[in-house]
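Case study: Asparagine--tRNA ligase.
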Amino acid sequence: MEKIRIIEASKHIGEMVRIGGWISNKRSSGKIAFLQLRDGSAYFQGVVVKSEVEESIFDLAKSLTQESSVWVTGIIQEDTRSKFGYEIHVKEIEVIGESKDYPITPKEHGTEFLMDHRHLWLRSSKQHAIMQIRNEVIRATYEFFNNEGFLKVDPPILTGNAAEDTTELFHTQYFEYDAFLSQSGQLYMEAAAMALGKVFSFGPTFRAEKSKTRRHLIEFWMIEPEMAFMDQNESLEIQEKYVAYLVQNVLDNCDMALDILERDKELLKKYTTLPYPRISYDEAVDLLQNNDFDIEWGEDFGSPQETFIANQYDQPVFILNYPKAIKPFYMKPHPDRDDVVLCADMIAPEGYGEIIGGSQREDDYEALQTQLEKHGLDIKDYDWYLDLRRYGSVPHSGFGLGLERTITWLSGTEHIREAIPFPRLLNRIYP
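Here is what the predicted structure looks like once written out:
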């Protein structure tokens, strides 16, 4: 008898198999018990017919409690009534671990209660579906960049300097040195690009930003490609190709997860069509002012402004060339204007906000040194970064995609906290 996972059921129709799983729910009549089984790979139904099993097995099936773990032995059958398409006709049940008074019941629970029990809430079908989409985005990311000729490089998590706003850094003591948790691997990825051409990183980043919005986490994961000999326009083409690839792979490989989440697949399909629309920062400000938004040129966009701009399009939209004053020191100025830089944010549709930020990097030594000084940064801390401009500098560009924001959008989830297994929020570090 073969031990299988639920997801493998289609390969074993008519066979007697053994499956280890948990009881997510159950119901019974006088002659049949229906067990909702999950094993981490999928959910399906176990059918226990009183006339086909020993009396003790049927009594056990009726007495099983929510989230008890079991071994079930039975025959896989097709089930045309379910989306999964298969079920198991149970012949034997063995309890592995009993579950008593499971705290998360089918009734409604508050957000704080579910966050306090996140270690158990992950077992729900909705969370399982979101984690499947997260896994697919990660898998497709590696596949995309490998296919495009990128090398994976791992920047350090402990750093001695800031990539962006120094007020958002988590400080720690590194023996006799001051150190910080990484807010971005970008500066190190630029060094890697000068050595290896096209590179990408995928790892955790940290922002000590005291924000409570549905778009913000304290700890999150970023995909950060850097590309030598590439300008901003070429980088935009990579960005939209990458995002469309992610959407298509989620559609291809997460069909059941999207159904569980009741995600509109036809809407997602629109996001695979390229190119994505582009609008300049100047045009975006005009659009907002003409629609009664109180905003002046030079201000950054907040969530309401981004949502309004995104709603003018059926796809993700790039906002190009923001004012230099509100962007980091490393961005290259526009060749025809000194007040804006060669950068772009990709804004996701449906109110999900920015999912990518990118730019062409400043490749001139003296210009970069001047910008570091203007931002009040210690030149000695960035001497190694300036070396990249001393020794064979080239035009180069890069971007960062926020994994959790992207998953929130693709899954149609309201809050970013659902897109990571154990969210770290302003007032939450448990569990």
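For the exam, be able to explain this: The CA atoms of residues 172 and 179 lie 5 Å apart.
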